Amino acid sequence: MDTRAADQARARKSLGDLYHEARWPTAGAADAVRRERQELVAGLLTLGVQETASGSKLFSGTLSPSCQACVDGTWSCLYITDWCQADCFYCPQSVDSRLGHVAHTPNADGMAFADPIAYADYVADCGFEAVGISGGEPLGALDLVTAYVTAVKERTQGEVYVHAYTNGLMATRERLASLRDAGLDELRFDITARDYDLSALRLARDILPTVTVEMPAIPEDEGRLGAVLRELAGLGVDHLNLHQMQVTADNARAFIDRGHTFLHQPSIADMESETTALRVFRTAASEHIKLSINYCCPAYRTRFQRRAKLGRAASLVRRAPEEITPTGLLRRLSLHDHPDRLAALAERLRAHGRADDRLRFDEDGTLLLDLETLQAAEPGGALLTVAYDQVELSSEAHDEDGDWQEVPGLPSAHLWTRRRSAAEARFTTPAVRDALAEMLADRWDEKRAFARIQADAGTTVDDLKAVLGDWSRARQLRPNEVVEEGLGEIG
């Protein structure tokens, strides 16, 4: 299944019957929006706006330390509560979870952390550099928030940067002072929840070290958002984070009723929200408004936050010569041949300085090796298998499931992992085997790899059939290796 078909299938499953009520762009509308976006981005870049995260994030000025840690893969988001008294139409959570007072165990990366000390151990032992505390409304669980902030700060000797989100409806001088005293570095406000009232920002500006506005770009509010930019700058707001709105089964009805257009992406996105954000960004940049602005879209979050989560888990179980791919999966390369030929190959590689952690024999007699060693190997007619594992991480023991193994060697945290096969392919033709190795090391340059295949492949009909079959299998591995560039797909 190609990427577009996969996105459509996910959207149908997520939205159910609402999928057919939703508005999706026609080919002509999608082309027009692509052109507008291309012009907006090009204009922003000429105005000094920068790109990061393979072009999926735009920013001016400086990123918050938490946002930079997110790009770097060293950021953890702790969901402290589901409850929230606001009723924002774009909220991705269900009404029952937002307005109910059901007990909620704080969780991060899909793992429960009922104890602040246990979460602080996880943050320290896994090398996080920043933590974001979200909800729901964190100020509605102030005692929990201060307990987790204090635990993280004490465990890491203040080295980890911590921010929290709020709608600002419960912001008082006493509550904000409690957050400051616990060690909170930054507080982020969604001003749309207060109908663009900035009084909570003014209060926070006098109490907390860093104050940020983090909000969705609502198309209907484009004029109001553009008008408030100078006020934010005048208040000394440190950062403005503009989000493209994301559609879920719980908020889709509200978007449909407002006539918004949906986009097929790994996470369904609101088309008009992105162009709104970019136009507002252009206003700020062209009028030289002194605000550090960060545009964050679902495509960025899907690619980079997912990659960070998977790569973190993979790093805890990686066994040389396995390697972690740019998408966060574990890659295992193995050669299959007569045992005597594999033994001779391994001896030759060691004689040329390849250390034992770069190659080893597996239990089934295959020779495992890393990518650089494979490229240097000259493996003759040996077959190549490329296998990918996705590693799951848990904060709880699973005694009934032998697949879960506790991670050894962590100073304090107790974590468990298990592997799940993500993909596997075997290559029978040396031409494709060697071209694939080159492509893995060369940013997946298919044109160059196929040119190598054409030069190295045989010329008989059987040769060509084998090569084309292997080449098709090689191309199917792309999603396991390549993080897409640019903003999300429009369509």
Explain what you see:
- It contains 19 helices and 20 strands.
- The strands form 3 sheets. Strands 1-2-13-10-9-8-7-6-3-4-5 form an 11-stranded mixed β-sheet. Strands 14, 15, 16, 17, 18, 19 and 20 form a 7-stranded antiparallel β-sheet that branches. It has a two-stranded antiparallel sheet with strand order 11-12.
- The chain is an alpha/beta fold.
How many separate helices? 19
Major sheet: 11 strands, mixed
Name the helicity range.
Answer: 40-55%
Gap from first CA to last CA:
17 Å
Judging from the principal axes of the Cα atoms, what is the shape?
globular
Look at the structure and name the CATH superfamily of the largest domain. Answer: Aldolase class I
- List the domain count as a whole number: 2
CATH classification, class level of the largest domain: Alpha Beta
Q: What do the pLDDT scores average to? A: 94
What structural class should be given to the helix and strand makeup? Answer: alpha/beta
Over all CA atoms, what is the radius of gyration? 25 Å
Could you provide a short overview of the structure?
By secondary structure, the protein is α/β, with parallel strands linked by helices. Helices cover 43% and strands 19% of the residues. The strands form three sheets. An eleven-stranded mixed β-sheet has the order 1-2-13-10-9-8-7-6-3-4-5. Strands 14, 15, 16, 17, 18, 19 and 20 form a seven-stranded antiparallel β-sheet that branches. A two-stranded antiparallel ribbon has the order 11-12.
